[in-house]
Amino acid sequence: MAETTTPVHLLTGFLGSGKTTLLSWLVRSPAFADTAVIINEFGDVGLDHALMGKADEDDVVMLDSGCLCCASNNSLQETLESLYYRRLRGELPPFARVVVETSGLADPAPLINSLYADASVARHYRLAGVVTTVDVQHGLATLDEFEAAATQLAVADLVILTKTDELEPQAADAVAQRLAERLPQVPLLRAAHGELPDPSAFFGAAPEHHLPAVRGLAPAQPAGRLAHVLRYGIASHVMRVDAPVSWAQYAAWVRGMQRAAGDRLLRVKGILPIAGDVPHVVHGVRHLFSPPRPHEGAAPGELLGVIVVIARDLDAEECEALMQPLRPPCP
Q: What does pTM read for this prediction?
């Protein structure tokens, strides 16, 4: 029997967006019991007070909630492998999931690649979703000014609007509406005073659960009137594959995406119907596409066949042309 992989949630957001304040509260919630939290900017992170008691030879502390906090200067691959084997040897309490807080300036794509493309990591872990925090006061201006912030938002499976207690409800509603226009298929939560109404909602960001349901293999359409963050040429194109595809078709599609789009691909995600097989979840970031894995859990329903391509400087016509290998062969 294949080993069950541990879900990993990436928490990203630009500098000052409130992600560390939120995380400092979340790790003390019962919902975060059995969670390992990896922090990659230990020097100035708001969890210092929780980690001050760590011994020099140990980079992991256990909070009263049952959450494990890990501060590491190693790569994500090395840290995840270390946590896995230390759990296996009984050196760490069992944990059921991992949350990785990224740097405020980080491009999430390399971390997504690490989870999908690194065989040693993908054997034990899987991406469960990307959570992006946006500051209600300065977030929209930050998205216009900094490409890193725009990228962090574009790849989100869940958006958390932070600091909503600092604006009047009507003003916060207006910001939420703007974000909903940019990412109409992505759930949005609001945090006030660094807290969510329901901490467990943080874990409801599975990528394949939030794919838009669209009809037909039509030309790619931007997902929303503003098509994500247009200033940087970032757009989300939604496609649907209604007929089952062969593995040869899938391989041809991946080769075409790699050659023609390559570094412009911020993220590709979807659930493909495979001829003679179960539906498979597909993921890609830039040139790297992970091996498709069988879809777990409930039947995908209307999400079956939906492919979302989030890319920079890739127009609808080019994206539609790149989908040709997944079309039914001409009679």
A: 0.77
